[in-house]
Amino acid sequence: MSELPPAPAVRLAQRSDVPRLAATLAAAYPDYRWTSWAFPDDGRAQRLHRWHEVLAGLAGVDAGTTWVSEGCAAVATWEAPGDPAPAADLQAVLDRDLPKVFGGRHRVVQASDRIAAGGRPAEPHWWLRAAGVRSSVRRQGLGTAVLRPVLQRCDADGVPAALAAYTSGVVRWAESLGFVVSASERTAVDHELPVWTLVRPAGG
Prior knowledge:
Largest sheet: 7 strands, mixed
Number of helices: 7
Order of helices and strands: EHHHEEHHEHEHEE
CATH class of the domain at 10-143: Alpha Beta
CATH architecture of the domain at 10-143: 3-Layer(aba) Sandwich
Strand content: 15-25%
Strand order of the largest sheet: 1-2-3-4-5-7-6
CATH topology of the domain at 10-143: Aminopeptidase
Radius of gyration: 16 Å
Structural class: alpha+beta
Shape: globular
């Protein structure tokens, strides 16, 4: 019987990883409908990169909730149960930069986030903010590998996980990991995109 290949190595991201992990997330889904819906046309690539720098990078690294593979080719960033408020200097960056990256779309994005949050579990849970793999290394198990630390912790602690999806493809991917749809709505104001909230029950 042949041995299974070892699982790809992953680790918690560090501050020095922020530029690379942000670049991976920004490049992972170039045609994702949410991206063109959420960010203004002007400077969209730069806006998207900065958004990932701030949330997955600075906020996720400081909270210890962003995992990366070798070379940051795959990234997953989460919000932990009872996630404490960011430090004052980081909160200042969030307050300054997030309205800038979304520009005139900021309020509708915030409102749509609240719609997605309506399907989140009432009990403490892990919330997947973003995950992505560089196209050059897809289908090598890296995406599952960077998610595994939190999903295993959820199983061990008896805690659910949840995420928001804006395409049926992401829904199918999440369902393959044990998530189930808990709510289905549409984005705020324009109702342009579907919004699914999916929950992975405690214990998988």
